[in-house]
Amino acid sequence: MPATIKDIKEETGLSLATISKYLNGGNVLPKNREMIEAAVKKLHYEVNEIARGLVTNSTRTIGVSVFDVTDMFCSLILHQIGIELGELGYGLLIVDASNDPERERSNIRFLVNKKVDGILCLPASTNSSVLESAFNAEIPVVLVDRQFRDRSLDGVTINNREAAAKAVNYLIKKGHKKIAVICGNEESTSRERFRGYRDAMEDADLEIPKEYILNDGTATTAYGYEAMQKLLKIKDRPTAVLCTNYGINLGVIMALNEAQVNYPEDISVVGFDNLLLSNVLKTRLTVVEQPMERFGQKGVEILMQRIREKKENKGVNDDGHINVILSTHMFEGESVRDLTV
Q: Is the pTM of this model over 0.85?
């Protein structure tokens, strides 16, 4: 039979109240802690997390909702979140929206019903109503990488508009004037990166032909491939293209390789995220690097703060949101041709 808390009482001679206090994270005298820990080890006692959750109103579990678990960006952030939560003694319960807002809404309800202590969300939806069940249950939620159109919430992002403008300005300094952009048409990062592209082009008084704007699909590898094929058919082909996420990077390179178009000799490419693709290509991509580890670290940090505040009965009003903006960096590969020389 598994050891029980009563077995620890018999082994140590301590009261059930003292043992329970220690097992539920409370402070006890150092000598009592040592006795309890020795008994736990000797008896191979395992905490009944369900029972402890009923007592403490905490499951020590964090729900993590992602827009697409197969997306490498999501996978790397999940990895870091797992490391951070593990060090804090929390487990994580992952749900995948598969880029479907209705599935995401159902997933959030699932996490709420599992009594998670908090939720980290890389949302597929553009509207905060997808989190309604979490709001109703007063479960703290922190957004990672994306924000909603209708409501500001606690979150950690980069300045996507500024990052895209930085990438376009890099191309302009290299002498490029005919610059195209490939981005999605829905989620917040795509919208902001398109605005950054437009800002830089307008500030430099550069024309933006409508054929140079590819933003009528989702920000996926398939769309990057399709959009690049369209650009290659334009009579007045651009000299450079900005790819606004890692999936689009992949699709663009696939299309260029298939068409036997060389980069940067025939067309220059700037992407986002210095992930696996940049390391395996013979011609390394010039990309906007995002601080992947920091997304997970700061997201967990903010969520833990909100969980502590909830335990202390400190509410969060609409004017008190924590929004952390992380810095980006331009990684200079070999995918941009210098037209000034």
A: no
**Which is it for the CA torsion 160, 161, 162, 168, positive or negative?**
positive
227-250 residue pLDDT tens: 999 999 999 999 999 999 998 999
The per-residue pLDDT for range 187-205, each reduced to its tens digit, is: 778 889 999 999 999 999 9
The amino acid at 313:
N
**Among 20-29, 168-177, 231-240, 253-262, the least confident range:** 20-29
For residues 28-35, give the mean pLDDT: 91
Cis preceding linkage at 264, omega within 30: yes
In the chain the first and final C-alpha atoms are separated, in Å, by 79
Enumerate domains of the chain plus CATH numbers: 5-56 (1.10.260.40), 61-157+292-326 (3.40.50.2300), 160-291 (3.40.50.2300)
In whole angstroms, give the CA distance from residue 165 to residue 266: 23
Decide: 286 and 336 in contact? Cβ < 8 Å: yes
